[in-house]
Design goal:
This protein has helices at about 5-30, 35-40, 50-60, 65-75, 80-100, 105-150, 155-165, 170-180, 185-195, 200-215, 220-245, 245-270, 275-280, 280-305. The protein contains 14 helices and no strands. About 80% of the residues lie in helices and about 0% in strands. Pfam families: T2SSF.
């Protein structure tokens, strides 16, 4: 089906706006290191701060902006809050226009809500993936801390050494912890902040062990070596479970693709059938029930395949 000229122009305009916005964000990011000290002294309303920077600062002062910024930082996505929300808005508008060409506009609004859920689902998956990568590095982290403390170094120095030796994401997170310690934050608070940024059972055990050993002065080297062996075994078990559940995960995605592919196939076989169907009450009920069933199946398969080790 060929889209009308106004729709094509609207899509091109959205793409052009996103391209200009992304180019501006790229240029601003290129000189961010050089202007870091100067930008820190700029007032919020100073024109030298730039429109994008001021908009981003205004958004980060809101509750939604702070929540989005925290999720993006935890997921390791180096994107401004304003850029993320602009992409989300543009994608939702494009989906409303495109879906409106096939079925009733009310389903375009539902599709836009689905796009928003997809954006935040992607951020959540990136967050979970980064947390899993950090958990996979915990055995090596425990061994580095054990060797450093066995050599007579204090925990603050051991954390700095681990931050330099380990790759991302462990290196980045430990570097933030080391910076907090250099700024005067107590060791227990810095470790608990680390556990709050990447919540997991394994990291919680490691943080609790470090806090208890710091308070009571127990055998930290022996405890860290024991934890390193246990974490290594848990990592192997998680890898085996993920391999076994790989087929079910693919099935989950296949179920969603079948639903969308079925709608597209109906519209290809009988052009305009979806619009005629969606304009009537019975057709709307059928489409809504089908959407609920497919969504429920996706959630059910995802729930079954999620196993905590």
């Amino acid at each position: 089906m060929i889209l009308p000229l106004p729709v094509i122009l609207l899509i091109l305009a959205v793409v052009l706006i996103l391209a200009v916005w992304g180019l501006g964000d790229l240029v601003a990011g290129a000189g961010r290191r050089r202007r870091l000290v100067e930008r820190g002294r700029l007032a919020p309303g100073d024109p030298a701060a730039g429109l994008a920077a001021r908009l981003d600062a205004s958004l980060r002062r809101t509750t939604l902006g702070r929540a989005v910024e925290r999720k993006l930082n935890t997921a390791g996505i180096r994107v401004r809050v304003s850029t993320f929300l602009a992409l989300l808005t543009a994608a939702g508008a494009a989906v409303i226009v495109l879906i409106g060409q096939w079925i009733a506009p009310v389903f375009g609004l539902a599709a836009a809500a689905g796009v928003g859920m997809a954006f935040f689902s992607y951020v959540r998956r990136r967050e979970e993936r980064r947390r899993d990568e950090f958990v996979a590095q915990l055995p090596e982290l425990a061994r580095v801390l054990s060797n450093a403390t066995n050599a007579g170094l204090v925990m603050r120095t051991a954390i700095e050494i681990a931050a330099d030796e380990l790759a991302d994401p462990a290196g980045t997170e430990l570097r933030r912890t080391a910076d907090a310690l250099r700024l005067g934050q107590p060791l227990e608070d810095a470790l608990r902040d680390l556990g709050a940024r990447l919540p997991s059972r394994e990291l919680g055990v490691l943080v609790s062990t470090l806090v208890v050993a710091t308070r009571s002065g127990g055998s930290l080297v022996t405890a860290l070596r024991t934890i390193a062996g246990t974490l290594e075994e848990r990592k192997e078990i998680r890898r085996e479970v993920r391999t076994i559940m790989g087929e079910a995960v693919v099935t989950n995605w296949a179920v969603g693709a079948l639903g969308l592919g079925g709608l597209a196939l109906i519209n290809i076989i009988q052009p305009g059938a979806l619009r005629i169907m969606s304009e009537g009450l019975v057709g709307q009920i059928v489409l809504a029930v089908a959407a609920v069933l497919f969504t429920g199946s996706l959630l059910a398969v995802r729930r079954v395949t999620r196993i905590d080790v």
